[in-house]
Design brief:
single chain; alpha/beta; 2 domains; 6-stranded parallel beta sheet; 9 helices; 44% helix
Length: 230
């Protein structure tokens, strides 16, 4: 890892941020992170203040808001001769927030670098991917069979798959949805425009805010079926 503008995909966001801090030489760090990640980072170190070069801020909610994106932009435009690394970390980053950050990421002010950390590559917009390199951390695990043939997707197979996963919780549903998104893209059997790709990101957000996992899965698969090439 390096302290340069990039997107980092990792299941251990808190530990990754701490590793990034260790890479510092003379840079200052601005960390805007979700509450759950902040809690993990200070667990067992509640009485220890942040290092003087780290300005750490927890967002109000788990899902970043436009106000959080504006805060990051404000920090980017603060005049400074030293290099400032602006770190934004959350399990998911909504398309709205990513679009808000797009211009400052594309044309960052002098001596400013942006590092985005999140759990799933599928939630990162193509416009961000085209502007920032992506690093995927962690060991690649052998994937089990999905149990759904996306090349032969039909109403019957969707119904059967939903029934199989009607008791799947939100935590287990996220990697399942990521698998579906990857296999749909690899199959080249769907008309996946930007609106449809955003649907995958929205599915993660819906799970984070408490939507029933079977409902999210059903909505995603039916909309995907509608985009199937005939």
């Amino acid at each position: 890892m390096r302290l340069v503008s990039q997107v980092i995909i990792t299941a251990q966001i808190d530990k990754t941020i701490l590793e990034l801090e260790k890479l510092r030489s003379d840079e200052s760090l601005v960390e805007i992170i979700s509450p759950s990640i902040a809690e993990k980072m200070i667990a067992g170190h509640e009485d220890e203040p942040c290092e003087y070069y780290v300005h750490r801020m927890a967002t109000e909610k788990e899902t970043f808001s436009v106000a959080d994106a504006k805060l990051a932009i404000e920090k980017a435009y603060m005049a400074s001769e030293e290099i400032t690394i602006i770190i934004l970390a959350a399990k998911t980053l909504s398309p709205l927030v990513q679009n808000k950050l797009l211009k400052v990421i594309e044309e960052p002010p002098k001596n400013k670098e942006f590092i985005l950390l999140t759990e799933s590559k599928s939630t990162v917009l193509d416009t961000i991917k085209s502007r920032l390199p992506i690093s995927i951390l962690g060991e690649m695990k052998e994937e089990e069979a999905l149990g759904l043939d996306l090349n032969q997707l039909s109403l019957a197979s969707v119904y059967e798959f939903i029934q199989t996963h009607k008791r799947t919780d939100a935590k287990a549903m996220k990697p399942l949805i990521e698998r579906i998104s990857k296999e749909a893209i690899r199959s080249e059997g769907y008309n996946l425009d930007q609106k449809t790709l955003t649907l995958f990101s929205n599915a993660f957000i819906a799970l984070d805010v408490g939507s029933p996992p079977p409902f999210v899965l059903n909505t995603l698969l039916l909309k995907l079926l509608a985009r199937k090439k005939r």
